[in-house]
């Protein structure tokens, strides 16, 4: 999987992408520079990546996360399009970890249809299993954890299992768009 930013990223966007690349297995981060989306697709094919994640800028920071499937005709959008209301970088957490990659997806609460839907889609996209916290703790070191914040926005964070410590990055999503234009 290839991970990149929109053109002219800020330092915070680059740090966020670096954190994501250090948190999700099998991700290669590429500086985009002046590459068009077609250029990104070509780079993905060159790296033998079948999926692309693009973090877009909004008001100087990360504003949305676009998921794409690489095809012979270019990049095809994959739902959901995730609009970001806030991020917290790994360096902003107490627990100082460097490169711990999550190998499972966990949810809290387990009975939320919205969390189950987004976790299911991202599970397929990233190739990670959705597990209960207990099952994930037994076999994995870290997880991509989905929950709600106090404003009932979806929050995606990376947790060190066993001690249940948040290691970051944390992404708060303001909206999920399931109908993405092709």
Characteristics:
182 residues, 10 strands, Rossmann fold, alpha/beta, 23% helix, 40% strand, globular, 4 helices, ten-stranded mixed β-sheet
Write the layout of secondary structure elements.
Layout: E1 2-5, H1 11-21, E2 28-29, H2 37-46, E3 51-58, E4 61-71, E5 74-88, E6 104-107, H3 113-126, E7 129-130, H4 133-139, E8 142-148, E9 154-160, E10 165-177
Parallel strand pairs: 1-2, 1-3, 6-7, 6-8
Antiparallel strand pairs: 3-4, 4-5, 5-10, 8-9, 9-10
Describe this structure in words.
- With 182 residues, the protein is of the alpha/beta class.
- It has a single domain, classed as 3-Layer(aba) Sandwich (Rossmann fold).
- The protein has helices at 11-21, 37-46, 113-126, 133-139, and strands at residues 2-5, 28-29, 51-58, 61-71, 74-88, 104-107, 129-130, 142-148, 154-160, 165-177.
- The chain is globular, with a radius of gyration of 16 Å.
- The protein starts with a strand and ends in a 5-residue tail after the last strand.
- The mean pLDDT is 91.
């Amino acid at each position: 999987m290839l991970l990149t930013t929109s053109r002219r990223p800020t330092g915070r966007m680059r740090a966020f992408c670096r954190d994501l690349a250090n948190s999700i297995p099998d991700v290669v981060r590429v500086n985009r520079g002046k590459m068009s989306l077609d250029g990104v697709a070509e780079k993905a094919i060159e790296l033998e990546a079948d999926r692309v994640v693009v973090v877009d800028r909004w008001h100087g920071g990360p504003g949305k996360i676009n998921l794409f499937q690489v095809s012979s005709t270019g990049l095809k959008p994959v739902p959901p399009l995730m609009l970001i209301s806030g991020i917290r970088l790994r360096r902003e957490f107490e627990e100082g970890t460097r490169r711990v990659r999550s190998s499972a997806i966990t949810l809290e609460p387990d009975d939320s249809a919205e969390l189950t839907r987004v976790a299911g889609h991202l599970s397929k996209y990233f190739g990670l299993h959705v597990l209960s916290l207990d099952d994930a703790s037994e076999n994995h070191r870290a997880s991509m954890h989905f929950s709600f914040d106090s404003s009932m926005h979806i929050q995606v964070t990376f947790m060190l299992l066993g001690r249940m410590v948040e290691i970051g990055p944390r992404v708060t999503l303001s909206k999920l768009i399931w109908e993405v234009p092709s």
